[in-house]
Amino acid sequence: MESKVMIEDSQQQNIPKEQSIGPWKMVWIKFKKKKIALVGVFILVILVLSSVFAPFLTPYGQEEMNFTNINAAPSREHLLGTDNLGRDYLTRLLYGGRISLMVGVISAFISVTLGSTIGGIAGFFGGRIDNVLMRFAEIVMSFPFLPLAITISAVVGADVEPETKMYIVMMIIGGLSWPGLSRIVRGQILSLKEQEFVLAAKALGIPNYKIILKHLIPNTIGYIIVSAALGMAGAIMSESALSFLGLGVVPPTPTWGNMVQNARNLHVLRTRPWLWIPPGIAILAAVMSINLIGDGLRDAIDPKSNN
Amino acid sequence: MSDKVLEVKNLKTYFYTDKGVVKAVDGVDFSIEYGKTLGIVGESGCGKSITSMSVLRLIPTPPGKIEDGEVLFEGRDLLKVSDKEIRSIRGNDISMIFQEPMTSLNPVFTIGDQIMEALMLHQKLTDEEARKKAIEMIKLVNIPRAEKIVDEYPHQLSGGMRQRVMIAMSLACMPKLLIADEPTTALDVTIQAQVLEIMNDLKEKLNTAIMLITHDLGVIAEMADHVIVMYCGKVVEEAPVQELFDNPKHPYTMGLLNSKPSIIENKERLESIEGSVPNPKFLPKGCYFNPRCKFAIEKCRQEQPTLEEITPGHKVSCFVACKEVE
């Protein structure tokens, strides 16, 4: 008996402590290997930090006008020059990032919430519920995005405050982009619900909504995260497009989209490139970095890409 | 009467498919007493699992439907209670262990989370209490390093450990009845023995009744107090375990017992029951077993036998066997 205890003791000393690697840690380890995705993270972090800390980075206010100094070229006081109302353009770019990124995050959140709930319910209950929800998703999907978004924006957002308009834009983008994800989630759940752990959960008396939320959705979380990342990039693009057309967030609230709007004027396009190149680059950087992160996450989460 | 935890009367579960009605369970009666083990044996597809799932109303509807019968759990008919009530019974008063330990645990949650879930739901324990209880349960089913295992994921455990986790999960709320649907089929023999031992242990400690479904007669001999033999959705024989092994009456039971390997006799080939299980959509006329039965008489081809008590506690559904006794 004593010798057995001794053996156990010595074993415990010799064997190095095994670290438990959870699924998230595994994803992180694989994600770290993708250098290009890390570049994406780096760019995005810079963009987010610079817009969050905008008040500390520039001495000007976002709507502070100076009529004695309009349309100035980049200089030491105004690193990106000023616009036609004499507002510091760098300041507007930083504050614009707040709106653009926020629209991206919130729209993606709305779209992911709607998409995974609707897909989850359709997949889990099946039958008639599935039929109704999926036909509804197809109806939403069958309208071309931009014309519909423009119409809704024009009808709903005609006479509202710029602030409210921003939220309307988020809801339009989020509310129109969920069907793709909902179909993916539904398909996943259709196959997952046949697995025995769902029956086991039912046998433990766990209510349906908890089975969907706690047991099924987390199993599709990989798809949902990737879709959220790509959806966020898409939402930033959509917001820019709508704002560019004057139907998104309207001035004086700056966003990258309505700042690029300056390029619509041929004179500005030719002679004042500092008014449209920086917001354009900002949009490009944001969308590209988010897409890189999304791709990296997809590879890291997919267990089959094990190299 | 009051010592019966579960009483199933005339249970009928049918599946409505495009090609016809499948009578998976067709008029099954049995009962289980507190702290006893009821074994249910039969070939694949004879309705064992469907019977157990019907008890907890886990039959997928459609296509399945419980057509008739009563499932009395402590006097309450589970087929008539509301969805909410049945959910509060599942996992709390009656819980279930499944055949496949590999897929019965959710791959994205830690072992502890999964055991805690039922505890927090039914016993209203707090996070901390539930975690303590989970560790206690893991220890109870003889898994070493319980404090570490709670935070591990199912893929980090072996099949036997997972099955024991399943048992820990289903016993966490101290159910009055444990339904074990082929709990050892997917495990190797040494682990089987351990798992059975744990179940027997817990039965004694917690006075849990067990409904054990298996096609392994060895497991039945080891575990059960009372056995029912099913064939094509019907109970063909019911007896205390000793009686059944010593004195089988139904030709099907005899066939089953004959086809098990023995160390004492040195047989070249194992005996088998001639023929195969009939297609449940086209069951033969008369006794369902008659085409495969060596003793079949004319009456067997015309009429369906009913379950008759031939000696106290021993019931059989066979004309020939009943006549013999008379």
Automatic annotation (TrEMBL), chain B:
Localization, UniProt? Cell membrane
Domain ABC transporter per the UniProt entry, residue ranges = 6-257
- Provide any one GO MF term from the record: ATP binding
Name a biological process GO annotation.
Answer: peptide transport
A Gene Ontology cellular-component term: plasma membrane
Q: By its UniProt entry, which InterPro entries does this protein fall under?
A: AAA+_ATPase, ABC_Ni/Peptide_Import, ABC_transporter-like_ATP-bd, ABC_transporter-like_CS, Oligopep_ABC_C, P-loop_NTPase
* NCBIfam families xrefs: oligo_HPY
Spell out the family assignment given in the record's similarity comment. Answer: Belongs to the ABC transporter superfamily.
In Swiss-Prot or TrEMBL terms, this protein is called ABC transporter ATP-binding protein
